[in-house]
Amino acid sequence: MSPFLDLPPLGAAQFAAIEDQVGELLRTRADVIVTQGEALLPLEAAIRGAAHPGSTALNIVTGPYGQTFGNWLRDCGAKVVDLVVPFSTAVTADQVAEALAGRPEIDFVSLVHAEAATGNTNPVAEIAEVVRAHGALLMLDAVASVAAEPLLTDAWGVDLCVIGGQKAMAGPAGVSAVSVSDRAWERIRANPAAPRRSYLSLLDWKERWTDAGRTALPHAPAQLEMLALGACLDRIGADTLDATIARHRAAAAATRAGVRALGTLELFVPEDRDAAPVATTIRTPSGLDATALVAALDPALPVQAGGGALASGMLRVNHYGRAADLGTVLACLGALAELTQGADGAVAAAEAAWSAALAG
Questions:
Q1: What's the CA gap between 105 and 351, in Å, rounded?
Q2: Do 256 and 275 contact (CB within 8 A), yes or no?
Q3: Strand 114-115 vs strand 120-121: parallel, antiparallel, or unpaired?
Q4: Which of 165, 168, 109 is CA-nearest to residue 140?
Q5: pTM score
Q6: The pLDDT of residue 1
Q7: By CB neighbour count within 10 A (0-12 exposed, 13-18 middle, 19+ buried), where does 344 fall?
Q8: Sequence-separated (6 or more) residues with CB below 8 Å from residue 52
Q9: CA Rg value for the chain
Q10: DSSP letters of 294-348?
Q11: 81-121 tens-digit pLDDT
Q12: Least enclosed by CB within 10 Å: which of 199, 204, 304, 305?
């Protein structure tokens, strides 16, 4: 029998130690709950814990996940104000401030940090300052951004910060986490509709685990996923978080420079300041179907077609985790150059941008 299938039980102390590592990664002293499932679990749990009939939420939509959050908020009975911006851009703090000023009753704001699906990222620090001044809670989906760009949960005033391990952390998809501020706990406790005796109940975890001293797990943990999460946190610690972030920033810069040099493809997010460090999205020219292009590529390359309505006209180069690597970026650019008969110079442009990003 493989030794990986005959492991000693994962104890409460080891589980708690991994939670503490997540807290360090998020730069937070708030409670951290590691949830035993994909990141949609704590995202839905956070919304269902904080939103309720009579509450009003500002739901910032810069990609498909914002649309999902709006559906959950409405299902909870909350009034929802959607702030929708083009998926090729980022939302600004001024746009958020204007939306909040027009609806002073807003008490909850949901925001995605980086949208891997559309390749944009939002200025969380500035937005969080506006939200805090308004007095609302801020829930942040940082699944794609964690370990790829700065994430200062406490300093920015993020009340509910959700992460997953499967992107920039290069960890498992089947385990996730949420940090919960004291303000958020007060809100959840006061919500009579907050889930209880449910897998979506953050309060159950807090009472049975966090506040009980973290000495006895409420149920059997997903052992392999937890061990994998601990291993990727150890690896990020050894490499340093700053170096991990720098590698993602360089991968994005190199990919964008290479695409511009090709001349046959157009960046979906035109402004570098709005571009996510985890994925570069590309518009395909008229007559070139993205799905067909991907089918012609080596399946080992981290390139895929866009989702939903973007499936035919968008390519997505994923450069997160282990793919945040110059060799991987160059391989993707080389394949795209061959398929689209792009101009020479993409490799040189990418290499120069990679070096400049790391130096800067």
A1: 50
A2: yes
A3: antiparallel
A4: 109
A5: 0.96
A6: 42
A7: exposed
A8: 76, 77, 78, 191, 192, 193, 194
A9: 21
A10: HHTS-TTSSEEEPPGGGTTTEEEEE--GGG-SHHHHHHHHHHHHHHHTPPTTHHH
A11: 999 999 999 999 999 999 999 999 999 999 999 999 999 99
A12: 199
Structural domains present in the chain: 7-238 (3.40.640.10), 241-359 (3.90.1150.10)
Question: Taking Cα atoms as reference points, which of 274, 321, 280, 233 lies closest to residue 113?
Answer: 274
Q: In this model, does residue 291 exceed pLDDT 90?
A: yes
For the stretch 14-33, pLDDT in tens is: 999 999 999 999 999 999 99
Distance of alpha carbon 280 from the chain centroid = 14
Separation CA 300–CA 265 (nearest Å) = 21
Tokens encoding 128: 């969080």
What pLDDT digit, counting tens, does each position of 217-227 carry?
998 999 999 99
Residue 107 to residue 261: CA distance in whole angstroms? 46
**Residue carrying the six token digits 């060799």:** 327
Please give the torsion angle defined by the CA atoms of residues 55, 56, 59 and 65, in that order, rounded to the nearest 10 degrees: 30
pLDDT attached to residue 68: 92
Q: Say which residue the tokens 């200062």 belong to.
A: 152
Sort residue 137 into left (φ over 0), alpha (ψ -120 to 50) or beta.
Answer: beta
What local confidence, expressed as pLDDT, does residue 180 receive?
Answer: 98
How far apart are the C-alpha atoms of 343 and 360, rounded to whole Å?
Answer: 27
SS3 76: coil
Provide the CB-side half-sphere exposure for 356 (13 A, CA).
Answer: 11
